[in-house]
Design a protein that fits this description.
single chain; Tetracycline Repressor, domain 2
C-alpha cells in the first residue's frame, strides 16, 4: 500500500498545517518545505499541493488561521487594556502563526481569505480603540504598535531579563497603566 493510500484516516489539510506549525515553531518559516511536510504526513510529495498549491499558499493558510484565532481571542477582551493583553497572550500561545501573519513577503498578498481575515481582526482593534482616542486612526496605530512590539520582543526573548520571571501578560497590563493613565493626555510638542 502506498503512503498516499495509507493516509485515509484523517484530514490531510489539517495534518500538513499542524506539521508546518511545528516546523515554524522549531526552526522558523524559512525551514518550511512542502516535500518535507508530505514526508512527515506520510503522503506523496505532491499531495500537499492539492490543498495549498505552493509554499506561499500554505503560509497564507496559516496566516488566515492565525488572524481568525486572533480575532476570536480579541473578542474576549473586556476593555482596551484587556485587548492588548489578549493580543500578547495570542502571540505566546500561537508563536508560529504570529511569525507568519506579519510577514507579507511570505504570503499571497491579494488572497481574498487573507484580506477578509486581516480586516476582521483590524476591525476589532479599531472598534475597541474608537472610544479611547481623539483620532481613532492614531489610537489604532498606537495600541497595535504597543501590543505588537511587546509581543515581538517577548517572542524573540529580548524581554527575558526585564521580565525576570514575571507573567508577561501582567507586565503588559502594568505597562499600559504606566503609559496611559486614565484622563491624561500627552503634552503637545
Amino acid at each position: 500500500m502506498t503512503a498516499e493510500r495509507a493516509y485515509h484516516h484523517g484530514d490531510l489539510r489539517r495534518a500538513v498545517l499542524t506539521a508546518a506549525l511545528d516546523v515554524i515553531s522549531a526552526e522558523g518559516p524559512a525551514a518550511l518545505s512542502l516535500r518535507d511536510l508530505a514526508r512527515r504526513a506520510g503522503v506523496s510529495h505532491a499531495a500537499p499541493a492539492h490543498h495549498f498549491k505552493d509554499r506561499a499558499g500554505l503560509l497564507t493558510a496559516i496566516a488566515v488561521e492565525g488572524y481568525d484565532l486572533l480575532s476570536a481571542a480579541l473578542g474576549e477582551a473586556e476593555d482596551l487594556r484587556g485587548l492588548g493583553v489578549r493580543y500578547v497572550h495570542f502571540a505566546t500561545a500561537h508563536p508560529a502563526h504570529f511569525q507568519v501573519m506579519f510577514r507579507p513577503e511570505l504570503l499571497r498578498p491579494d488572497d481574498p481569505e487573507l484580506l477578509a481575515a486581516r480586516e476582521r481582526t483590524r476591525g476589532r482593534l479599531r472598534a475597541a480603540v474608537a472610544g479611547y482616542a481623539d483620532d481613532p486612526a492614531v489610537g489604532f496605530m498606537a495600541a497595535w504598535s504597543m501590543a505588537h512590539g511587546f509581543a515581538t520582543l517577548l517572542l524573540s526573548r529580548n524581554l527575558d531579563g526585564p521580565l525576570d520571571g514575571r507573567d508577561p501578560e501582567e507586565v503588559f497590563r502594568a505597562l499600559t497603566y504606566e503609559m496611559f493613565q486614565p484622563g491624561e493626555k500627552p503634552a503637545a510638542g
